[in-house]
Amino acid sequence: MKGLAVTMTVTAISDIRDIVRYIARDNSSAARKFEDEFWLAVDRIRVFPQTGYAIPQPDGAFLAVRVSTRFKHYSIVYHLLSDEELEVVRVLHGARDMRAFF
Question: What is the pTM of this model?
Fold first, then answer.
């Protein structure tokens, strides 16, 4: 599938690493599934970038999508850099106030 190019912030990469480590403490198989489903979600937003829900900010809105139904408490937060590129800025648990991170 053709879609937008994706970049990731250092913070987003750190978020993913922390989440995988946290899940792996109890279930290494689930941690691998999280990673797989995370990358499937990234592929979906590459092709359908406007499907995310808005997180309003004073300087523009970020978008977010759930990683998957299995990992519905985790959201990928991103914004469109251009018509050709998006940037994943955070991967956060839904219990956190997402607006506080931007």
Answer: 0.88
